[in-house]
TrEMBL record:
This is Copper chaperone CopZ. It is found in: Cytoplasm. Residues 1-67 form the HMA domain. Gene3D superfamilies: 3.30.70.100. Keywords: Chaperone, Copper, Cytoplasm, Metal-binding. It holds the Pfam family HMA. Coiled coil: none annotated.
Length: 68
């Protein structure tokens, strides 16, 4: 499965690393690509192993907002 999340508040490379790292720590997430310019985050994941809510929480824990 693949999804694209819209994340608000990422402006620098550290933001990118924080969001990417937090998502990659989740079991079931296989690939994360952050687009700093647009705030879009492409995520490849295994369906059933991880939910969109898990991803949202991981990003919010880092201090960023996810728009649905
Ligand atoms: Mo630097 Mo990115 O303060 O939020 S980590 S802009």
């Amino acid at each position: 499965m693949q999804t694209t999340l819209n994340v608000k508040g990422m402006t620098c490379g550290h933001c990118e690393s924080a969001v990417k790292g937090a998502l990659e720590e989740i079991k079931g997430v296989s690939k994360v690509k952050v687009h700093l310019d647009s705030g879009k985050v492409d995520v490849k994941y295994k369906e059933g192993k991880v939910s969109l809510e898990d991803m949202r929480e991981a990003i919010e824990d880092q201090g960023y907002d996810v728009e649905s």
